[in-house]
Write a structure and sequence with these properties.
174 residues; mainly alpha; 0% strand; elongated
């Protein structure tokens, strides 16, 4: 169990580092939003186009990065929605069982399916070096790759959560 708990701590540390990087992406998202709004209104007053599809798509892609990579960080810090009215009444052991079974029966299979189907989707985008159809748009293959990275991080965090739940059950003598 010590080796598994060490693995769990390494996964937790990885997702914590990803969370720190996402703070910077959130700042970038805000900056892009401000640039787009100012560019749109100032450009309208000056009779010029000061915004672009690349800036707008940059905002969308920054949000996608936060959403996709942040889900594992959110799971790590117990930020996902739960039925708290029930969860708070559960014993620590019952909460561990719910976490373990939920992870093994829902989260792990869902991530596995998303990764399995995502591989061909991402490979096709890379083979075509897919770019947005909008004039001046951004490449799409890098952001599609983030889909696989996000579900892999979520799967790893699910494994970490399952290890911690199993450790809790083991110390309480299930």
């Amino acid at each position: 169990m010590r080796v598994l708990l060490r693995l769990s701590r390494a996964i937790d540390a990885l997702n914590d580092r990803v969370g720190i990087v996402l703070r910077g992406v959130a700042l970038l998202l805000i900056a892009l939003g401000v640039i787009n709004v100012v560019g749109r209104y100032l450009g309208a007053r000056l009779g010029m186009q000061l915004s672009s599809n690349a800036l707008l798509e940059g905002q969308i892609q920054a949000f996608a990065i936060i959403f996709l990579l942040g889900s594992a960080y959110l799971l790590r810090h117990d930020g996902h929605i739960r039925v708290d009215i029930l969860q708070t009444r559960f014993s620590r052991r019952l909460r561990a069982w719910v976490d373990l079974l939920g992870t093994l029966l829902a989260l792990v299979p869902f991530c596995g399916v998303m990764i399995a189907y995502g591989i061909d989707y991402v490979a096709l985008a890379w083979s075509r070096l897919e770019v947005s159809p909008n004039p001046g748009g951004l490449p799409l293959y890098p952001i599609k790759t983030v889909l696989l990275i996000g579900f892999t991080l979520l799967l790893l965090q699910g494994v970490s959560q399952a290890i911690k739940a199993a450790a809790t059950l083991r110390e309480h003598g299930s």
